[in-house]
Structure formats: structure tokens, C-alpha cells
Amino acid sequence: MQGCHRHKRHGVLRRYYLDQTDFDLANDLAEVLNLFYEITLQVLISGSPRLANTVVFIDQITEHLSSAISGSTYPPALKNACRLGLKITNKYYSLTDTSPLYRIAIILHPSFRDEYFKLANWEPEWITEAIRLAREMWVSFYKPQPVEPTPSAPSSINRPKTSMLAGLGTAAAARGGILSSDPLDIWLAGGLILDGDEPVNPLKWWSQQKRTGNTHGGLVHMALDVLSCPATSVDVERAFSFGRDYVSSKRHRLSSESISRGMSVAFYSKNGLIKEGVLDRWKTGIQTGKKLNAKPKGKKKVIVLDDE
After folding, report:
1. Angle at 46 between CA 44 and CA 49, to 5 degrees
2. How far apart are CA 276 and CA 184, in angstroms?
3. Which of 17, 239, 248, 255 is 20 to 30 A from residue 53's alpha carbon, by CA?
4. Average pLDDT of every residue of the chain
């Protein structure tokens, strides 16, 4: 390629030199790719990618590319590249419909709930479908069975309501209706929880709620199960890579039990869950136990032959 652009005597032709237009295009490209860089860094952090953030990331990319296409800042060539990127983004966005967990995770996020869909300008029927999926999972797998009330004597006599008391019910309905006792309805009607101006860590928030005994009517179990799902296969791929390095060519005779134990200990140690010196004391204890349990060697028998 360089040979086609190079003059035998004078070198590279001047029209192929880099000029300010090329540097401006490179700067524009860096601006467009900066969001991808930031999201990639978040996704690559072990344990950081959360299921609820998947749709959020895609929405951010969609809005970013759409703004680049509709604006007048970037040249036509870069806009065409953004159109191709938006087409690929929409392709993967449609794949989130194959699993209800993405939408349910957003609903169970303390900082999002169903309000995120409204801010993202989702169609009303899409929002209704997301809530329906969450309710279906809640009712099918997590909603506690109603406790049968024990029969007891009536403590008071039911009296007919006066016109004024009856009117209170109508007034309450006009002011928003009677609140539902269903935990999911109560959750959707609650306010958003933020850490300053930033969303909270949903998994940590729900874990803290469980530790304090606030189960939100049993909704905490569903939230922890859904939000614990990995958003990417980064951690899984790293585990496989570590296993490949752990089982070297000289360790092929290790049993599956030994491999799983070794990888588990390495994982706990890497994450600071094993205090310094614990493994050394454990190994010393194993060696000491082997010495104590070793059978004492018997004395050698000496056979004496009589000389005749």
C-alpha cells in the first residue's frame, strides 16, 4: 500500500500527508468512543457488571449515537459510522427481550423501579409488560402464601356507615385510591433511593435490608435472586482461565475434588477472605498430624545362627 503512494524519487505524495482535518477527525472519533471506553471499564471490573445496568448501558449508547447522528458537530463519514454502530446496538437491545430478567432487575432496583422506563421514554405498553413480567415471577415463585386467620369472637358490632363516613371512601378513591397491600405494588409506589445524585448499589442495598429484618413482604428474596445474576461472563471466563493455569502439564493427575478445593482456596485468598498465616498453620497442622498418626517402625529382628 505504501508503495502505491510513494514516489520513487520524492517519497510519499503530499496529498497523503496527515493534515489538520485528519487530526480533527481523530479527535471527533475519540469523543464518540469515550462513552464506550467508560462502559467497558465498568464491565471489566470483577463483580461490577449488574443485570440492571445492562439496559441502562444500552440506552446510554443509543442516546449517545443518536445525538452524534442528528447533530452538526461531526463530519458525514463519522455520522455514517455511528449509524452502523446504532444498528448493531439495536440488534443487541432486541436480544434483551429473550429474558424477562433484564426488565425485572430494573424494576427491583431501588434507584430505578418503573420510573426509569418513563425517563427513558419507553412506550406505555412496554412499561406495562415489564411490570407484568415482574408480577408474574413474584406471584409464581416468591409471594408468601396467605395465612388463614383464626376464628375469633367479633370485638365490635358492625354499624351502618353514615353518609359522611361513606363519603370518605369516595374521597379517598378520588385522591388516588386505596393503597394495595401487595408488596410489589407498595414497592412500585415507593420513592426512589439515591446515594447523593448517583444510583445505589442494588445488591448491597437489598442485602442490608435483609440483615435489618426488612423483607419488604418477601420481595427481598426475589430481588436478591434476580440482582445476583451476572450481567456478563467476565467472572466465569476468568475462572476458566485460572483453572487452565492451575492445572498445569504436571498436574493432570489431580482429582476433580482437589482442583475444586484448590481453586476455591485461591479465590477466597485473592479476595482477602483468608487471614494471613491461616494456610500456613493449616499446613503445619496437617504435617504434625501425619507424624503423630504414623505407625512406629518395629525393631529389626536379628537371626543368630549357631556355629557348629
Report:
1. 65
2. 45
3. 239
4. 83
